[in-house]
Task: inverse folding
């Protein structure tokens, strides 16, 4: 069975602070895919990143960075110098097939105050 | 490049009624997946359609059924609506065998908010 745990439920920061969103996953499969999606108040899930289990390279994209560690089954997401527009619910998700169902965590509500 | 579209955006039904939700995939995509998102929860997988067949199914009763058309668009049907079916229904599309770093990533539409009274 697959499981994604996002232990943090709500995080509130002041603009320009750095913030890390935690994600822990469980799967018995050796090949799997990890994702982060952002859900603004409008409701649409916006794709942010996908990592394959065989590629543990961390990634940086502008103010966003991701830390994938198979040893601790974690795939954490850091926003550097947060902005008000980053306020949203962030979901971590897991798939054990390249084009297979996504198992989501419960999401983390991030509020960035000016 | 058109993204995933869904209709209607909002819907109000009463218990026992039936509802049909529609989804058009992103241009070039051939796979459609449906998810149910209850308030304050993460999306839950309902089923996935590929080549007009249901390929995967989550833990949802038979009241939930779907269809995929030759143009890859899809419908989600829910019969005998219950109060607990009130949720945001999300459609996602992807391309089978696309390869590459993000090849088969699922891209989501804006959703249909269903309220059952």
Result:
């Amino acid at each position: 069975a697959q499981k994604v745990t996002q232990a943090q439920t709500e995080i509130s920061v002041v603009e320009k602070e750095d913030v890390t969103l935690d994600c822990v996953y469980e799967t018995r499969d050796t090949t799997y895919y990890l994702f982060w999606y952002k859900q603004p108040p409008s409701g649409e899930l916006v794709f942010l990143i996908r990592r394959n289990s065989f590629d543990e390279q961390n990634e940086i994209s502008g103010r966003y960075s991701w830390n994938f560690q198979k040893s601790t089954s974690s795939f954490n997401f850091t926003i550097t110098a947060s902005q008000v527009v980053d306020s949203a619910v962030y979901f971590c998700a897991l798939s054990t097939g390249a084009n297979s169902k996504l198992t989501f965590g419960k999401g983390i509500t991030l509020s960035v105050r000016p | 490049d058109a993204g995933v579209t869904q209709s209607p955006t909002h819907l109000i039904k009463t218990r026992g009624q039936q509802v049909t939700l529609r989804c058009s995939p992103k241009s070039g995509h051939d796979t459609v997946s449906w998810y149910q998102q209850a308030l304050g929860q993460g999306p839950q997988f309902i089923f996935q359609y590929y080549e007009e067949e249901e390929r995967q199914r989550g833990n949802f009763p038979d009241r939930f059924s779907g269809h995929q058309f030759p143009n890859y668009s899809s419908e989600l049907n829910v019969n005998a609506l219950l109060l607990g079916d009130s949720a945001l229904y999300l459609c996602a599309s992807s391309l089978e065998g696309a390869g590459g770093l993000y090849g088969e990533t699922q891209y989501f539409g804006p959703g249909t908010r269903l309220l059952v009274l």
